[in-house]
Amino acid sequence: MSYIVVDIEADGPIPGDYSMICFGAVIVDENLDKTFYGKLKPISENFNPDALAISGFSRNETLEFNDPVNVMLEFEEWIQNNSKGKPIFISDNNGFDWMFICWYFHHFIKRNPFGYSSRRISDLYCGLVKDTFAQWKHLRKTAPTHNPIDDAKGNAEVLLHLRNEMGLKISLK
After folding, report:
1. pLDDT higher than threshold 80 for residue 18
2. Domain limits at 108?
3. Does residue 169 fall inside a structural domain?
4. Residue 14 carries which DSSP code?
5. How many Å apart are CA 60 and CA 119, to the nearest integer?
6. 71, 73, 77, 151: which has the highest count of C-beta atoms within 10 A?
């Protein structure tokens, strides 16, 4: 199994009506040097200016981004070339990140290499410390910037901390 931490930025709250603008992914290993970054052209006329502003891109910039079909095919190929065994999707907020990635995979290429499930870092941490209100973001080494590679890397650092320092049993083969 390979754990892949993913972070996305979008111009609204749901896929289809709004667009995923960009996303980053990192393979969880001791080096955190296998990354993917995709920038996607909007698929809808709808966008929320406040949501888009978080990404740091203007609407005009996003209109020049890459075709979503090509980006999702490239991401699938990257997953196949960089993961061992079944890839496991994991994120800070998988209710949001997974929703977009899953929808885009199924909508544009009719399959999802991650399958039908995902994992949430917060749930893993809260389970380890036996406190559903526990906070974990202080464990990041890479500060969150809303660049999805930075954010995915910071979250992957937390997963490594949970494994190396707190005894979470995950295999990084």
Report:
1. yes
2. 2-164
3. no
4. S
5. 34
6. 151
Q: Where are the alpha helices (DSSP H) in 33-67?
A: 49-55, 59-62
Q: How many domains are contained in the chain?
A: 1
Q: Residues 137, 152: contact at Cβ < 8 Å?
A: no
Task: Give pTM, 2 decimals.
Answer: 0.96
Of 25, 66, 24, the residue nearest 42 (C-alpha):
66
Instruction: Identify whether 54 is part of a domain.
Output: yes
Catalytic hit among 106, 107, 138, 146: 146
Give the model confidence (pLDDT) of 106-118 as tens digits: 999 999 999 999 9
Is residue 146 part of the annotated active site? The answer reads: yes
Task: Tell me: pLDDT of 173 over 80.
Answer: no
* CATH of residue 145: 3.30.420.10
Cα 153 from Cα 35, distance rounded (Å):
9
Question: In the chain, what's the furthest Cα-to-Cα distance?
Answer: 47
Condensed to tens digits (0 to 9), the pLDDT of residues 90-108 reads 999 999 999 999 999 999 9
Q: What percent of the chain has pLDDT over 90?
A: 96
String of DSSP letters for 63-91: TTSB-HHHHHHHHHHHHHHH--SSEEEEE
